[in-house]
Design brief:
By secondary structure, this protein is of the alpha/beta class. Helices cover 42% and strands 17% of the residues. It has five helices and five strands. Strands 2-1-3-4-5 form a five-stranded parallel beta sheet, with helices on both faces. The N terminus and C terminus are likely disordered.
Length: 145
């Protein structure tokens, strides 16, 4: 697996509303994230099947070909600790359908409070990165000659 960078985490942003998605992508890029955009669930799943696996998944819920929960389940099958964010106009439906994610998906209701979303994205990447650093085995000291 490739080392992850805290400076420029990679976000896969999935939303079928292209204008909204592009605006959000520009805002995230201005805040130091790298963003790849998928405009439906099938394209998101295809992107997730390639490396590198993104550091964060931000997905809409209702989309053509596969909904956000299906995309999130596929992403977590590849990387169980992947931070998941669902941006939706249907938060109660997402809460019901998204049960069982551990760690839990973070749900943001549209219209999105960008300041809160950006702060939570950064916190989640830092938490996963610091956890990965703690879990990384240290090299044993060389044996004396």
């Amino acid at each position: 697996m490739e080392p992850r960078s805290i400076e420029q985490p990679l976000i896969l942003l999935v939303d079928d509303d292209i204008r909204t998605a592009r605006l959000l992508a520009h805002l995230l890029e201005d805040d130091g994230f790298r963003v790849e955009l998928a405009t439906d669930g099938a394209l998101a799943i295809a992107r997730l099947a390639r490396t590198p696996v993104p550091d964060i998944l931000v997905t809409d819920f209702r989309m053509p070909h596969a909904d956000g929960i299906a995309v999130a389940r596929f992403a977590r099958s590849l990387r169980p600790d992947l931070p998941l964010f669902v941006v939706t106009g249907y938060p109660e439906l997402v809460a019901r359908l998204g049960r069982g994610f551990a760690p839990e998906a973070v749900v943001h209701t549209k219209p999105v409070d960008y300041t809160a979303l950006s702060a939570e994205l950064r916190s989640s990447v830092e938490a996963v990165s610091s956890g990965a650093a703690r879990a990384r085995p240290t090299s044993p000291a060389p044996a004396p000659a």
